[in-house]
Design brief:
The complex is a heterodimer of chains A (683) and B (58). Chain A contains 27 helices and two strands. With 683 residues, chain A is an all-alpha fold. With 58 residues, chain B is mostly helical. The interface between A and B is large, with 56 and 37 residues.
Chain lengths: 683, 58
């Protein structure tokens, strides 16, 4: 039996290696997406079975006899032993956001290969390890947050810096995802109506749950899903109506202002009325769509039209500037390694783990699942004709301000596309135009629509499926904006409390709440408007900023994880977290340095500001002056990120050297051992 | 058939957990209370206040 198991695992490993070799070495003809699916699935299986199990058994020594916080601190609410597969789904739903969908679509400008390899290898050796170790650390510390663990295990500097880093990341994250929505909805009455309709639907759900049928969340969410789908059909009617279409047709600035106002109200309204029902709706739709996309890809098995490598590996890409190293590794954060996951792994999940061994499938396994979502997004983007992909994702400032100029530029790059092709495609999906829709969401929606349409409805349903995909992306991005603005408010209060408790208390009163909400909205709103006005499309400056910040947060988490492993075992197992840490630090610091100081104006913020300044000498204008200020602001923000993380790195290094020399306390701050008394039926 | 039924009940349990319905049931049991609109409002206010002070993932 044991020999048979060995043979099966050997076969899986060989198949994985064969598929990885197949996708890496095939540079000529289009490749079928099933190669990517098989390569990913086999690598995940081997990583999960051997690497994660090694970490669980040898490094963490997970012990089911030890009571978890869910058992010891059981309160029926936050702390509750939960079935491992339910917790797996719960954790996956919490970590899966728009990042693994959008990042791979943008990184596809290098071709399918660099992003795919990073998603697979990064997740197995980096992202899943980070999530797993932080989950383990939090579980052994009564479910404490990353900041608290950093303070206890590394030092107070690390803890405070982590708080500031997270707040700054949140602001950039909200701006960049808002930009994705704005670019997807501008000039689209169908999409705008559908998304606008989700707001009264959420309000109605809030009232239903509060007063009509309290507690019936599933029933209410099902009705919400039906209403949202009806609103997609309604959106089609609106877009075809000469009277109503203009009411829902907005430019980028108008939509940005609407999203900022939405962010303020959504975060300031009582959560039961708007945010919570919207979140329920969004979670169910998200899980359903991810599942449907997986099934769709297996059923349709589309061929990838983008090559393994494009000419933009040289750093001259139209979507964002910069070479594969480091920009592929910061563009795809969620899906490979995401620092944000460390916040979830040290949030709700560790309080619900029934047995220590469950941290293995939940912490490591859920990240592999998210990585697979990123692979699906990569497939959906790469199945588009390359010319169409670049026409949708390239900003007017790069390819030319008219469709004729854009197709000429893109065709000259070796990706033939015509204005007529683009017009037909736009008509088929019920849009006026698909040019300059930067941000990744529309091209992902095109890929998803093609997959879903082949599964149901054919070409006649392409418009419905396209807007269904746009609705799906915008719905949960807007939910994150609402929740993120609210969380940003709490973080600002926490941060103020570090200096003045009285001032922090004032911020929690009625006036204070509104002032802080406005401040948070103004902060991310400023970057959003900046992105919309950016002649290079906004994504070129904001997405790398977001990627750098997210990966820097992962560096913080990996510093904390390394400190814990060092305290537990000495230097023996440090490499487990040090290898991904070194890679991320190298990628983030190189990317950060290049974004600030690179001589090419498309890449370096300061070089771009200098170029604009030279242009302004001949024709001064207020808008150019604003662009110059924004470039310099982005350079400063990037610099702040690098300084913050350098601080944590130095603090961690000091702690590591002290532990190794024996001059510093090497005691881990785990909760005391208590024997588990959970019965089998309880887990 | 049995596997299918177990899978379906697992999916339903996940949906109930995601929708906070399971947490509400646990709350009722833990506090020895019966379901009422007032009880749900009390529970959801407490639950949601804690839920939305935490960051949502990107």
């Amino acid at each position: 039996m044991k020999i048979l198991a060995h043979l099966i695992w050997a076969a899986i490993a060989v198949l994985g290696a064969y598929c990885l070799g197949g996708i890496a070495l095939n540079h000529g003809e289009p490749i079928n997406s099933i190669w990517l699916v098989a390569a990913a699935a086999c690598t995940y299986a081997v990583g999960f079975r051997f690497y994660a199990k090694f970490i669980a058994a040898r490094v963490m020594a997970l012990n089911d006899d030890r009571a978890t916080p869910a058992e010891r601190l059981r309160d029926g609410l936050d702390f509750e032993p939960t079935n491992k597969w339910i917790l797996f789904g719960h954790h996956f739903a919490a970590i899966a956001g728009p990042g693994p969908l959008v990042g791979p679509v943008l990184a596809a400008q290098f071709g399918y290969l660099p992003g795919t390899l990073w998603i697979i290898i990064g997740a197995v050796l980096g992202g899943a390890v980070q999530d797993f170790v932080i989950l383990f650390a939090s579980m052994r510390r009564d479910g404490k947050s990353l900041g608290q663990i950093a303070r206890e295990e590394v030092g107070t500097v690390g803890g405070f810096t982590a708080l500031v880093t997270v707040l700054l990341i949140m602001i950039i994250l909200l701006a960049v995802i808002a930009l994705v929505v704005v670019n997807a909805l501008k000039g689209s009455p169908w999409g705008t109506f559908t998304i606008a309709a989700t707001m009264p639907i959420a309000l109605w759900m809030g009232v239903y749950l509060r007063w009509i049928r309290p507690g019936k969340v599933l029933e209410c969410s099902l009705m919400g899903v039906v209403l949202v789908i009806a609103s997609i059909f309604g959106g089609q009617w609106v877009s075809e109506s000469a009277t109503w279409a203009p009411w829902f047709t907005f430019g980028a600035i108008g939509l940005s202002i609407a999203v900022i106002i939405y962010g303020y109200f959504a975060s300031a309204l009582p959560v039961w009325l708007f945010l919570a029902p919207r979140d329920y709706l969004c979670t169910f739709i998200k899980l359903g769509v991810v599942l449907a996309l997986g099934v769709g890809i297996l059923f349709v098995r589309p061929e990838l039209q983008l090559p393994a490598f494009t000419r933009f590996t040289d750093g001259t890409g139209p979507i964002f500037a910069g070479k594969i190293f480091p920009f592929c590794f910061i563009t795809i954060a969620c899906g490979a390694v995401s620092g944000f996951h460390a916040l979830i792994s040290s949030g709700t999940t560790p309080k619900m783990i029934a047995r220590e061994s469950h941290a293995y499938p939940v912490g490591y396994g859920a990240m592999l699942m998210e990585s697979f979502v990123a692979i699906m997004a990569m497939i959906a983007a790469c199945m588009l004709q390359p010319g169409v992909y670049f026409a949708v994702n390239s900003p007017a400032g790069v390819v030319g301000a008219t469709p004729a100029a854009a197709v000429a530029t893109i065709s000259n790059w070796g990706f033939p596309v015509t204005a007529a092709d683009m017009a037909t495609l736009a008509k088929n999906v019920g849009e006026q135009t698909l040019f300059y829709r930067t941000g990744g969401a529309p091209s992902l929606a095109l890929g998803m629509a093609a997959i879903f349409a082949r599964g149901g409805g054919g070409a006649s349903m392409l418009g419905f499926w396209y807007h269904f995909a746009i609705m799906f992306e915008a719905l949960f991005i807007l939910t994150i904006i609402a929740a993120g603005t609210r969380v940003g408010r709490f973080m600002l209060v926490d941060l103020t409390a570090q200096f003045s408790t009285a001032a922090a208390r004032k911020m929690t009163g009625l006036v204070g709440v509104n002032v802080v909400s406005v401040a948070v909205c103004a902060a991310w709103g400023y970057f959003l408007i900046q992105g919309v006005r950016d002649p290079l499309g906004g994504i070129n400056s904001l997405w790398p900023l977001f990627g750098i910040s997210n990966q820097l947060l992962a560096s913080v988490a990996l510093c904390v994880a390394t400190t814990i492993l060092l305290k537990m075992h000495g230097p023996k197992f440090m490499w487990i977290t040090c290898v991904p840490l070194l890679w991320l630090v190298a990628a983030c610091f190189t990317a950060g340095w290049q974004k600030i100081f690179a001589a090419e104006p498309a890449l370096g913020f300061l070089a771009h500001a200098n170029q604009l300044e030279r242009a302004m000498r001949s024709s001064p204008s207020a808008s150019t002056a604003a662009l110059i200020f924004n470039d310099r602001l982005d350079a400063v923000v990037t610099g702040i990120f690098l300084i913050l993380v350098a601080t944590i790195l130095v603090d961690s290094l000091r702690a590591w050297v002290g532990i190794l020399r024996g001059t510093r306390d090497a005691q881990v701050h785990e909760a005391p051992y208590v024997s588990s008394e959970l019965q089998l039926e309880e887990v | 058939m049995r596997t299918l039924r177990r899978f379906a009940s697992g999916v339903m349990a996940l949906l109930r957990e995601l929708s906070d319905e399971s947490a509400y049931q646990r709350h009722l049991v833990a506090h020895g209370r019966a379901h009422s609109p007032e009880e749900w409002r009390h529970f959801s206010e407490h639950r949601l206040r804690a839920k939305y002070t935490r960051a949502k993932c990107c």
